[in-house]
Amino acid sequence: MNRRRLILATALALPAMPALAQSSSGLLNLFAGTGAGANAFVERVTIASNFEIDSSRTLLEKSTHPQIRDYANRMIADHTAILAELRALPDAATRQPAALDERAQEKLIRLRSFEGDELNRWYVQMQVDGHKETVEIFEAYAANGEVPRLKEFAQRHLPSMRAHLAAAEALQAPRPPQ
């Protein structure tokens, strides 16, 4: 990676660090209470799923790596289904944001600036980081959610979010030379 891109990537990543460092206990507090927790859960799941879909489409446009392309196709299918199910829940339909938040938009712009192996590495790292956060969100709401249908949704989809994280981490693992 050239020096300019490294500086740009570092500068863009710094504002996101506090959010990435948020602990599960912080999420538990966020999802406790009256109504705000359900709103926050739906918003975060919607933004995360839309980011997974958009970043995976970007990857598919530019990458030829077969395993990473398979993973991207799985993310599009799974997160599209999650969003459709979430939209069908009366407790969530009106709470879904229409667009990515600024942080997700910046990450998507950054991803689009890469090519080849650099694109693959950044995509996989974004998937690992994003799914770690998503697993925490689902765990917190599955444990402390106040709206029964949303809590059941979180409990039902938590295993697939963990599987997405494990699959992304496996893509990071070094491969023996072929």
TrEMBL record:
The keyword Signal applies. InterPro entries: DUF4142 (IPR025419), Ferritin-like (IPR012347). Keywords: Signal. Residues 39-171 form the DUF4142 domain. Pfam families: DUF4142. Residues 1-21 form the signal peptide. This is DUF4142 domain-containing protein. Gene3D superfamilies: 1.20.1260.10. The keyword Signal applies. PANTHER family: BLR2558 PROTEIN. It comes from Falsiroseomonas algicola.
